[in-house]
């Protein structure tokens, strides 16, 4: 235990790997800790690794230098979860809603904190009802920001697809601490001085203060939502020829939906247990607007059968529809959809194409390729 | 390292509701009021009336002393635990009953059709805006319904057809595929006392004496003595609604005087699951009833 630091300039610390483990041990008394972890050989290509979120116990398990393929949304909104248990004797809610659990310390980047804000808008703010499953976890979440640095974490690898500066999500707020990976351990900044209580005695006071990305590797020109609305009314945007490219390029696999920190759609369904047909549960699983059956209705009617129409629907939601409803873009520019697409479809390039159509002057340009 | 799947409880096949459980099981109170908006209430089936080979009307007990009845055009999420949940419109409601007219198309609706009077259905809702009665009072009301689209407006038509004077004039147009698909045969007869009722079928049979042709063919027959004081309601499958709205526009009815009720795939009914979203609107929250001008501007 250390005395509480006095002024803001004195909140930087250096921790060796050993003292990081001591810090995590202290945290784990009050929190479950979720961070990017490396899963060997599970990547997009054979022999590559996949980085995604997992619960961690020690420093070595964390992968702070790479962007996670999947976003931290799965901590708050798991890919599959039980809403109710059904038994002969009645219906039961999962313990999540009945018990107070530990806090949830989530290590994530600035864009991902913005991503959680977008999930909040849907699960807590869209309509009069709050989603109690999301809320039960959300109330317990504390953010630890992973610093990306002024150039973004790196100009190479998967960070090359980042466009948070273009989306205005390069800076975050509402986090308790900031972490920067170092050769031996971490630099740490205490945004919330109360977290000094967790610091191990050998943490060294430094002048470390976090910095944020100032420039995207490939800046994206994001159209003004009002101009987009006008282009929709004038019937130039939905009829733009470039959407048709995606009819054949997209294979409707839905990966761009699953990796997105802000895609919040789900489908509920009931299951009966094989071992006991009178028991079962109601479950919800992630759903995505790119995937078949998302809009299927009784009588065989469906909307947006063409994959290009689905790309258009997603794009409108991410940079227009959500904005009209909630006053900010849904897309936070993390670039994960571009990283995940097996067909190398770039959403960032798609936004640029929209900009060109919306910009009547440039709408005749024939140079719109996804070459990025 | 453990993955976040840890979140999910292990199956509990024989545990009872916990004391503080808010699921509402066993509670007699229907509708909302529990802390969990996904929780449902049981309502007993009072009687079942067969309408066609695939459609039937289920009348449920509704304790109206405690909860006011829902509006026409609103819907409930109806569950059969272990089978699933489906959005279903209110086809009529009163102080002590709630009625739904259901087409058998899949898992949940098959399950409902296997129920008998005395069995329970599990409901949450009502959801959606429904029709605003102020839109109709003192006006000339025209209702055009295609197929099962007649269900969500049945209560509305019954109300105004039996209360002469609340609307200045009531026209009902109903279109069905074949004579075998005609819903609410008895009501259609009763309504004739207070409304001009026209029923058409796409394909007639030898014993069908009424008009044959799609519903839009009935629109030119209507008289609009006071077009500014008119409300037109169009409910049915997507294409039927589109062409019927166009037929009314052709007759010079102002777009602002037409209402439609949209149907979309729905999973949650409360603005979370995203299935029903069209541009910046959620059909479950902002609809299903929309002004036709707004509905035409919403492109999927
Ligand atoms: C606001 C609203 C009001 C409705 N009112 C009525 C009504 O009054 N009477 C009535 O008979 N039907 C109504 N429906 C349609 C009804 O919800 C579907 O027929 C029902 O969900 C099918 O469920 P199922 O389990 O029996 O079929 P499933 O086994 O789930 O599937 C059968 C078919 O129905 C489609 N389907 C599945 N879920 C839905 C869904 N949520 N909405 C539409 N189609 C779906 C499937 O894609 C498939 O084509 C309404 C739908 C909405 C959105
Ligand atoms: S749309 Fe793509 S870039 Fe935008 S938040 Fe989702 S995954 Fe990230
Ligand atoms: S990841 Fe690519 S191919 Fe798959 S649905 Fe998204 S855009 Fe289409
Ligand atoms: S039905 Fe889920 S958002 Fe409307």
Q: Please state the CA-atom Rg of chain B, rounded to the nearest Å.
A: 21 Å
List segments of chain B where confidence is low: pLDDT < 50 over at least 5 consecutive residues: 1-33
The major beta sheet of chain B can be summarized as: 7 strands, antiparallel
Alpha-beta classification of chain B? alpha/beta
Looking at the overall shape, the CATH architecture of the largest domain in chain B is 3-Layer(aba) Sandwich
Biggest sheet, spatial arrangement of strands of chain A: 3-2-6-7-8-9-1-10
Largest sheet of chain A: 8 strands, mixed
Give the helices and strands of chain A as they follow along the chain: EHEEHEEEHHEHEEEHHHEEHHH
- Number of DSSP E strands of chain A: 12
Query: What's the total helix number of chain A?
Result: 11
In the CATH scheme, the class of the largest domain in chain B would be Alpha Beta
| Radius of gyration of chain A over all CA atoms, rounded | 22 Å
**Largest interface, per-chain counts?**
A-B, 81 and 61 residues
User: What distance lies between the first and last C-alpha atoms of chain B, to the nearest angstrom?
Assistant: 43 Å
**Separate helix tally of chain B:** 6
- What is the CA-CA span between the terminal residues of chain A? 50 Å
CATH topology of the largest domain in chain B: Rossmann fold
Give a short overview.
Chain A is built from eleven helices and twelve strands. Chain A is an alpha+beta fold and 372 residues long.
Secondary structure elements and their pairing?
The complex is a heterodimer of chains A (372) and B (300).
Chain A: E1 12-15, H1 17-30, E2 31-39, E3 50-56, H2 73-76, E4 80-87, E5 90-92, E6 103-108, H3 110-125, H4 132-138, E7 141-146, H5 164-167, E8 177-182, E9 185-190, E10 204-206, H6 225-233, H7 245-249, H8 255-259, E11 266-272, E12 280-286, H9 307-326, H10 336-340, H11 347-358
Parallel strand pairs in A: 2-6, 6-7, 7-8
Antiparallel strand pairs in A: 1-9, 1-10, 2-3, 4-5, 4-12, 8-9, 11-12
Helix pairs in contact in A: 6-9, 6-11
Chain B: E1 41-50, E2 55-61, E3 75-80, E4 84-89, E5 92-93, E6 97-103, H1 107-113, E7 120-127, E8 140-146, H2 151-161, E9 169-176, H3 185-191, E10 196-201, E11 230-235, H4 238-250, E12 258-261, E13 277-278, E14 281-282, H5 283-286, E15 289-291, H6 292-297
Parallel strand pairs in B: 8-9, 8-11, 9-10, 11-12
Antiparallel strand pairs in B: 1-2, 1-7, 2-6, 3-4, 3-7, 5-6, 12-15, 13-14
């Amino acid at each position: 235990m250390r005395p509480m630091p006095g002024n803001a300039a004195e909140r930087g610390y250096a921790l060796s790997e050993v003292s990081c483990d001591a810090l995590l041990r202290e945290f784990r008394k009050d929190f479950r800790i979720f961070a990017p972890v490396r899963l060997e050989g599970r990547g997009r290509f054979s022999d590559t690794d996949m980085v995604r979120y997992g619960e961690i116990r020690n420093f070595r398990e964390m992968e702070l230098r790479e962007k996670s393929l999947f976003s931290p949304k799965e901590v708050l909104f798991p890919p599959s979860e039980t809403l109710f248990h059904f038994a002969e004797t009645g219906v039961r809610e999962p313990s999540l809603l009945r018990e107070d659990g530990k806090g949830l310390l989530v290590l994530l980047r600035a864009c991902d904190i913005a991503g959680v804000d977008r999930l909040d808008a849907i699960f807590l703010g869209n309509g009069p009802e709050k989603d109690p499953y999301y809320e039960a976890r959300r109330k317990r979440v504390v953010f630890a920001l992973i610093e990306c640095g002024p150039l973004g974490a790196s100009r190479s690898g998967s960070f090359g697809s980042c466009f948070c500066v273009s989306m205005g999500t390069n800076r975050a707020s509402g986090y308790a601490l900031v972490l920067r990976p170092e050769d031996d351990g971490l630099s740490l900044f205490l945004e919330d001085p109360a977290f000094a209580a967790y610091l191990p005695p050998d943490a060294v006071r430094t002048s470390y203060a976090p910095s944020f990305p100032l420039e995207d590797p490939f800046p994206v020109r994001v159209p003004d939502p009002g101009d987009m609305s006008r282009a929709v009314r004038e019937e130039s945007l939905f009829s733009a020829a470039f959407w048709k490219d995606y009819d054949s390029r997209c294979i409707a696999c839905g990966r761009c939906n699953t990796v997105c920190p802000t895609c919040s759609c789900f489908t509920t369904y009931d299951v009966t247990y094989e071992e006991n047909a009178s028991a079962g549960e109601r479950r919800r699983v992630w759903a995505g607007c790119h995937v078949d059956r998302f809009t299927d209705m009784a009588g065989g009617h469906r909307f947006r059968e063409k994959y290009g129409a689905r790309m258009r629907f997603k794009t409108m939601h991410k940079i227009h529809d959500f904005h009209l409803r909630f006053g900010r873009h849904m897309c936070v520019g993390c670039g994960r959809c571009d990283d995940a697409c097996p067909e190398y479809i770039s959403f960032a390039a798609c936004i640029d194409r929209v900009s060109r159509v919306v910009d009547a002057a440039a709408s005749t340009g024939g140079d719109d390729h996804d070459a990025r | 390292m453990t993955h976040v799947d840890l979140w999910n409880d292990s199956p509990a096949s024989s545990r009872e509701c916990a004391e503080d459980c808010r699921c509402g099981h066993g509670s007699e109170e229907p509708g909302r009021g529990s802390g969990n908006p996904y929780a449902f209430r049981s309502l007993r089936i009072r009687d079942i009336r067969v309408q066609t080979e695939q459609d039937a009307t289920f009348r449920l007990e509704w304790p109206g002393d405690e909860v006011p009845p829902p509006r026409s055009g609103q819907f409930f999420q109806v569950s059969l635990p272990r089978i699933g949940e489906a959005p279903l419109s209110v086809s009529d409601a009163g102080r002590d009953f709630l009625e739904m007219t259901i087409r058998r198309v899949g898992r949940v609706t098959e399950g409902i059709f296997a129920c008998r009077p005395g069995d329970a259905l599990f409901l949450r809702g009502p959801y959606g805006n429904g029709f605003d009665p102020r839109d109709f009072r003192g006006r000339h009301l025209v209702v055009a319904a295609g197929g099962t689209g007649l269900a969500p407006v049945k209560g509305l038509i019954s109300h105004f057809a039996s209360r002469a004077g609340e609307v200045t004039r009531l026209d009902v147009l109903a279109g069905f595929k074949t004579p075998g698909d005609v819903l609410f045969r008895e009501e259609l007869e009763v309504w004739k006392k207070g409304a001009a009722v026209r029923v058409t079928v796409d394909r007639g049979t030898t014993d069908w004496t009424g008009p044959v042709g799609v519903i839009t063919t009935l629109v030119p027959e209507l008289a609009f003595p006071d077009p500014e004081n008119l409300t037109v309601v169009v409910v049915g499958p997507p294409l039927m609604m589109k062409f019927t709205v166009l037929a009314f526009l052709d007759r010079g009815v102002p777009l602002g005087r037409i209402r439609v009720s949209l149907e979309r795939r729905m999973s949650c009914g409360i603005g979370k699951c995203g299935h029903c979203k069209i541009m910046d609107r959620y059909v479950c929250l902002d609809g299903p009833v929309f002004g036709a001008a707004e509905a035409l501007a919403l492109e999927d």
